[in-house]
Amino acid sequence: MTDIDILLRAIKTLRPALPALVGGDWAQFEDQLNTYLRQMKTSPERAQMLRAQVLALFGRYPQAHQRLVKLRRELQKNEGDTIRGGDVIGYEAVAIGRGVVEIRVSAGGIGGTVVGAKIGSIASATVHTDANADDLSKAPAPLAEPRYLNAGFFTAGRDDGPVASEQPLSLADAPYRLGVNVGEFWGLGTPDTPIPDDVLKPLFDQHPELILDVAVRSFTVTLPEPYQRLPLAASGNSQMHFFPVEFPDVGRHTIEIDLIYCGHLLQSRRVEAYVVEHTGDPVPQSAGPVQDAYITFTRTAALDPQSLKSLAERPSQLTVVAERSQSYNRIGLRFYRTSAEVEELGFEQSEITDANLVKRLKAVRKQLKATMEAYVGGIGGSEQQLTTQLGKLADIGRSFYCALLPGLSNADRAKDTRRKLLNGLKPGTIIQVAPLSAQLSVPWELLYERPLLSYKEGRTRLCPEFRKHGSEWIDCPHHDDPKVVCPHGFWGYRYIIEQLPCRSERSDPPRLALPMYVRNDLPLKLVALINPTLNNWKTHRQTLTNLAPTSRLRVDQRDTLDTIFAALEQQEADVLYIYAHGGQDDSGRPCLKVANDDLIVEQDLNALRITFYGAQPLIVMNACESASYSPEDFESFILYFCKYGAAGVIGAQCGVTELLVDGMMKLFLAEFLKQTPAGEALYLARRSLLLGDRPDPRGLVYSLFAAADLKVAQAVNP
Fold first, then answer.
1. 74 CB contacts (<8 Å, ≥6 apart)?
2. Which one, of 206, 690, 214, lies nearest residue 462 by Cα?
3. What DSSP designation does 45 have?
4. Is the pLDDT of residue 46 over 70?
5. N or C, fewer C-beta in 10 Å, the chain?
């Protein structure tokens, strides 16, 4: 038996006792567990990722977790001599011919190859290894227990271990240190989401240890040493890293711990502590646990070895982590600037309120809408029209930029801060935005990073060389002239931006999210959920079908409510393509007007238990305001789709015209179907509209909520 077999047998043995061990969460627990077990059968290539999720699910319930661990160890001891080979713990798909791929696997430490398999279905493939029968009959290594990002408080100058979690911290006993490591679970909170050891293993085969970054930030707590390097070996516990902490006053305080690999945020863990004046002082009943910790962000569950290899080859140069503090009614942004040469992290923290953010988002989207309405009857316009619209967009984008990065609005610090945070960011590189607050969608593409006077007709000029000069900051001959607007100052025209919908609520069970590929066969299935009352659909459908021969791309139209719901339940789409009206219903809920203006709201998807775990499609939402969310919104299609298995979402920050959809999506899909990563394909499409004979800036309305490196597994247009 493999360790997957052992886990399944242990769960089967333990199942009658689980309702009592889990308690009041049993219904949700059972539903999530059954989902993972079904996926293990239907998607064996993801078995190890799913195994990690099952263990993390049990980790939220200590009694169930302890019983499961004990049973697994007993089964391994009793039946270990019958294990053959071990589990597939990682794979890499390599095309070797038309419709045929080679899956290079790491199986229980034995390298091997699966030939003739389709991605997403390797159960029937033949596995070839270099090992002989004697090797396969050897007893396997002991089961590796999950490792976690751990944290706890220690009293400085004492070596008596962490402060007991049921004990509040006190100003009189300060100073304290926050201890952080990766390894066997200890400390605050419960074992919830482990680090991705299964998928890290191929990297450990090449390197004795990996170097991760650990960064700590807080709204209120002073942290003199905000980051450290954390060497991590293939097994065992990492070294303990200590961060001095200085609490300013009595009350509840939070600290965010970020675990970063090659500039990419893997996990964030929030630590909470209630501080009293003196030891023994009473704690308010409303304070809750006096010390606690829980995962607030994770993208590790869906990362396979090839995905991690991609991250290492293409590091994120700027990571933006957004969070909302309910206690202080503030939005905080943590900026991590990484550089292979400098080998350091830079920080810039912003503070804006929810109300302020709502107002700014409305202002930005109002201008986007005005720009959309300024172009009618086709794509693009004159350069005078471009001057007006880019000038107005840059005006509001610059104001938003300075609010989010307050150091850049300070004239004395601006040049130094810009140099530290932004210089060296090459055009076309990835900026990773990892929101930890309920607010996901921000039009980062509109941020304008060059100094600019507010827009005034006749004063604001368009850079006359924007088509000719390079994309570097200093390539523009007018880069220091605040009266000149240059498209290369917009983030959407300089960088590839990924907004990662990986925020984790405390009540959420562990889930799969953010795969790095759409697991398509050929022909790729593009399922279009449409509103047939839209005027341009027939023309646009022809645009879609012209992208590739029918043998390589199948466009499936669904235009009635029954067929649309059936398509959602069947989970066959590689790309789920929504071509419909959008907006809000009478209750203020986000809605899609499909079929003959029938409304779909999130409640409908919940009622039908719509998930996307089967195919994990990219969902393209060509609907008005499909990405126009604010902190005041209580529902979100983007969050729902990604929470329940979609590979990611593309949406619009304001209303869109059908002619823009036709032009923009033709450019995007032509690149994406060639196996260009989604972030790069959207970036190139946006720039193509701008640099065409009739320049059009409206590509800035589209945002990506997925891993920027997401791509199709098999190219439709080689």
1. none
2. 690
3. G
4. no
5. C
d(CA 547, CA 564): 23
Residue 36: name the closest of 48, 52, 15, 50 by CA: 50
Do the beta carbons of residue 420 and residue 489 sit within 8 Å? no
Contact 188, 206 (CB under 8 A): no
Q: How far is CA 677 from the centre of its chain?
A: 15
Q: How far is CA 198 from the centre of its chain?
A: 19
pLDDT at 143 over 90: no
Residues near 610 by beta carbon (within 8 Å), at least 6 away in sequence: 568, 569, 644
The closest alpha carbon to 264, from 229, 314, 223, belongs to 314
Number of Cβ within 10 Å of residue 652's Cβ equals 24
- Going by C-alpha positions, the residue among 525, 437, 439, 450 that lies closest to residue 480 is 450
Tokens of 337: 């600037």
Question: Rounded to two decimals, what is the model's pTM?
Answer: 0.75
Rounded-to-10 torsion of CA 472, 473, 475, 479: 160
Q: Is 400 helix (H, G, I), strand (E, B) or coil?
A: helix
Give the phi and the psi of residue 349 in degrees, each rounded to 5.
-110, 130
The predicted pLDDT at position 462 comes to 94
Is the per-residue pLDDT at 716 higher than 80?
yes
| Residue pair 574/672 in contact by the 8 Å Cβ criterion | no
Sign of the Cα pseudo-torsion (349, 350, 353, 357, in order): negative
Residue 312's pLDDT is 57
User: Residue 492: is its pLDDT beyond 70?
Assistant: yes
pLDDT cut 90: percent of the chain above it: 34
605: its two tokens? 């998807």
Evaluate whether 259 touches 212 at the Cβ level (below 8 Å). Answer: yes
CA dist 436 to 190, 217, 227, 321, Å? 19, 13, 19, 7
Report pLDDT for 560.
94
pLDDT of 55 over the 80 cut = no
Number of residues in the chain = 718
**Contact (CB, 8 A) for 679 and 668:** no
CA distances from 167 to 151, 170, 269, 280, 294 (A): 15, 9, 20, 9, 18
Q: Where are the alpha helices (DSSP H) in 654-697?
A: 658-672, 678-691
Which of left, alpha, beta for 352 (phi over 0: left; psi -120 to 50: alpha)?
Answer: beta
Q: Mean pLDDT lowest for which of 172-186, 330-344, 408-422, 536-550?
A: 408-422
List the helix and strand counts (H, then E) for the chain.
19, 31
Distance between CA 388 and CA 378 in Å, rounded? 18
Average pLDDT over residues 305-310: 55
Scan for tokens 């984008």, then name that residue.
Answer: 397
φ, ψ of residue 308 to 5 degrees: the values are -65, -35
Over residues 434-442, the mean pLDDT reads 66
Torsion angle in degrees (nearest 10) through CA of 526, 530, 535, 539: 10
* Bridging pattern class, strands 110-117 and 100-107: antiparallel
Contact by Cβ (8 Å): 313, 291: no
CA atoms 691, 696, 700, 706: torsion sign:
negative
**Whether the Cβ atoms of residue 154 and residue 280 lie closer than 8 Å to each other:** no
